[in-house]
Design a protein that fits this description.
This protein is an alpha+beta fold. The protein contains 4 helices and 5 strands, in the order E-E-H-E-H-E-H-E-H.
Length: 137
Amino acid sequence: MILYDLQCAKKHAFEGWFKTSDAFDKQAKAGKVECPVCGSTKVKKAMSAPALLKGGTGSKAEGIAIKMREAMTELRKQVEANADYVGNKFPEEARRIHYGETEERPIYGEATPDEAKELSDEGVEIVPIPWPSRQDS
């Protein structure tokens, strides 16, 4: 796994883990790498210092990747336990909550990058979460 410092077209900085450099390039070209702040898919690698790892198998980067996956899996469990899943109706339901048309409550679901940007532009507070794939599916 490779950790990249990334930057969107609006200069928001964030990090992303990728299996290979090629994997980043393919995902970015396909618009699958998204800024967690604004939802922009115009993302590039930012300048960063290289990490030098010593040792053979079980590198430090692999250990960090495992811990990150565990943390993201725990986050997913917490969200699923404490929020209502609204599926692809997320943008519609988030707006209804934002504009006071329905009760305020935590929700989660899916939105396209364009939908997420529109919500953000309207002042609807959302947090894109890059879910790890499920181990049990």
